[in-house]
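WARN retry 2 of 3 for item q-0093 after timeout on previous attempt; input resubmitted unchanged.
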Amino acid sequence: DGVDEGLTASKAGILKGDIIIKIGEFAISDIYAYMKALGAYKKGDTTTIVVKRGAEEKSLTATF
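OK item q-0093 returned
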């Protein structure tokens, strides 16, 4: 819906309008998959997040 400045998504380079399609090894198809993926990481963990931005897919690195 939006990206709050200074939080993990913003620091990783996720922009408003990006669609998260993968977090680490987790495919994101709905809010439940998103929440399950987030629950697998703890503070300090780093992973790759794949977003769909327009017609392109972008791989970003996020540290929780």
